[in-house]
Amino acid sequence: MSSTPLVGVIMGSDSDWPVMKLAAEALAEFDVPYEVSVISAHRTPQRMLDYANSAAERGLRTIIAGAGGAAHLPGMVASATVLPVIGVPVPLKYLDGMDSLLSIVQMPAGIPVATMSVAGARNAGLLAVRILAAADPALQQRIATFQSDLEKLVLEKDAALRA
Ligand code: RP5
């Protein structure tokens, strides 16, 4: 993206991208500039710390971190940045994503991670938009319109059942 990224979308492996691209798509829908990186807590620990340590001074406002299995990336990034971190549990072949979810959600007091549902990357993107919108009335208005459109869609589907 051309403008300075406000949201960092990171993931433990490129194999997480089919899930994590839903976060990127949600950010793009609201014209929020973002960056995407593969950063592994276990395979590239120094790169993870460098990213987390420099994120705020580079202008990022929020980090969305997705990982699967022993999913330590969101929590470790949260420990090394002052920015809000949104965690996305990526489901792998075994355990239906429960391993990823439990690895991310059960953080010790003091280091919060906003944990999404398993594979909930779209909501991660939308939550990042809401975080930015807290200080951006125009973006708030776009979220209100988005929610109103969602409501209309449900009502149309409801009506179509009886058509
Ligand atoms: C995690 O290990 C990644 O986030 C990914 O979900 C999982 C498997 O990675 P690959 O072996 O596919 O690279 O750290």
From TrEMBL:
Catalytic reactions of this protein: 5-carboxyamino-1-(5-phospho-D-ribosyl)imidazole + H(+) = 5-amino-1-(5-phospho-D-ribosyl)imidazole-4-carboxylate
Any one Gene Ontology molecular-function term assigned to this protein's record: 5-(carboxyamino)imidazole ribonucleotide mutase activity
Keyword annotations: Isomerase, Purine biosynthesis
Record-linked InterPro entries: PurE_ClassI, PurE_dom, PurE_prokaryotes
Residues binding substrate, per UniProt: S13, D16, R43
Domain PurE intervals: 5-154
HAMAP family: PurE_classI
Family listed: Belongs to the AIR carboxylase family. Class I subfamily.
Protein name: N5-carboxyaminoimidazole ribonucleotide mutase
Source organism of this protein record: Actinokineospora alba
Gene: purE
